[in-house]
Amino acid sequence: MAQRTVAVASASGLHARPAKLFVQEAARLGVPVTVRLGDKAVPARSMLGVLSLGAVQGTEVTLEADGPGAEEALDALAALLSRDLDADAEPGGNSGAKSGAEEALDA
Amino acid sequence: MPETGWAGPGGRLSGLGVSQGRAAGPLVRMAGPPSLPAPRPVADPEAEAATAVKALEAVTADLNRRAAAARTGASAGAGGGGGAGAGGEAAEILEALAMIADDPMLREEAETRARGGADAAHALEAAFDGHRDALAALGGYLAERAADLDDLKHRAVAAALGLPMPGLPDPGHPYVLVAGDLSPADTAGLGPDVLALITERGGPTSHTAILARARGLPAVVACPAVADVPDGTIVGVDGASGEIALGLTPEQAAEVMERDRAERARLAAATGPGRTADGHPVRLLANIGSAADLRPGAEGVGLFRTEFLFLDRKQPPSPEEQTAAYAEVFERAEGPVIVRTLDAGTDKPLPFLGLPEEPNPALGVRGLRVDRLLPGVLDAQLAAIAEAARATGADVRVMAPMVTTPAEAAGFARRARAAGIAQVGVMVEVPAAALRAAELLREVDFLSIGTNDLAQYTFAADRQHPALADLLDPRQPALLGLIEACAAAGREAGKPVGVCGEAAGDPAVAPLLVGLGVTSLSMAPSCVPLVREALAGLTLEECRELAREALA
Question: Residues in domain PEP-utilising enzyme C-terminal (chain B) (predicted)?
């Protein structure tokens, strides 16, 4: 079981736009990932599950996945969580590769 | 203006015209939330599960289609600048809702319940309700999202039952919207495709009427017969006479639209301060809810409703947020601005106030009365208004809603002046206040008559009650008598007395109010040109004659 623990960096927490980007990216990656906060675990692909964690800025969540592609998927999602997704809403406003979700939003 | 024979080949219907102008187009009905039939025995659980999944897919696809349309509209309007602006924001919200409808947990739960023997509609309802309750229990921002889940549930259940999706239709072409009645939430979402409104219920002061006037949309309310007109019928709507022509041809509809455009252009060309034919000045002011409602043409703002800042909030807005919102209006408005302090209660409950439910909210704690329970809200608002006035240098006045006694008026005036606001007034909405107008004017600088509530309380007739619309007619002599008493008290004291209720924007009633001695009329900005024209056609003496006849 691969794991990453990361603090939510977005100003609005894991709600609203950051939650949407996170869930879209999890769906795009296609690897089943679980988000754990305390004793609650939800699929990263579930908007309702992710919202129900109630994670605010600074909350540490643990991402878990198994099998092929798990490490890469966790890296991508952990990187997304550790950026302030409210702040880099502007297209091209951040360095590094854009996720598929962000490219979709830039359209 | 309306010629005779406003009827189509399909005949004619009559309702109450509440917002001037004419429009014509195909009729599209707004579907209400589906009523869930009693659970039925299930023969094939797998088929029910499939139906439930298909319903969720249909809702997701519908929301994604609307999101794409909103985004296209936004980038076209913003010169391809990406998801900026209101369209982009709407698209983001619709996409997030689509993701919830597409949620794997939700889908699995609906499937599990269907396989357990529930029919598709009940399986969906149970799946949504579980998540709704979980979000509501978390409180704060998430609790506010619970309403989104209810909306999605109604859509999914309707899809499972083969019913039209509830909510505002989106046919993709201009249309005349027909509904039983419209809620404030429905009316806020009206898009540019809506040509006119027809409702089965509602009265002259219903939300539908107020919104239609604010938007300049022709509207007819209290027309129950429209329920039988099939969707797609091309209808002509005359918002002045309340008549609806049925079965027009597309060519006739285009002609109606063209004539209405020409008429609006003619009226808009007239400008300048309000006056009667013989030059008696009557200030024409605007009723607004935010800076977005401001239009050129009025001589100031006679009613700035401040509720928009407080709606849908669990926490009151910060002093900085309030000051900024007021300053935006003060900067952009031409002429003086009269700010009405928070008017909560009855049909507009505000979650952050946390007021207990009342058996009789219209007669309970509302308007200035909220201050009895929560005094901090008013003082914070007065401070923010005063700060915004100082920062912008605008001519700003305040008035309190639902004032009943001279003692209440005195208390409000003292606190407003202590906050640094020089010109203070009160609204007259309660008969007790109208009967003591002279005493009120010893405490304050002006009166503003809210005819909608004054009629409701004088005639003991609910503003929204469809069967009582005649009692709420602004031409009722008892109502006019109270307005006359207020105007006389104003003349005696040398202080202005205006009307800011819906009657002020009705070109058939406005001259009568002037004849009673009212010194200003405040109305939806779209009504200003018609009222200006109506006053310019009559001398003050003719207005007085109209008033005498109406009072007789």
Answer: 272-537
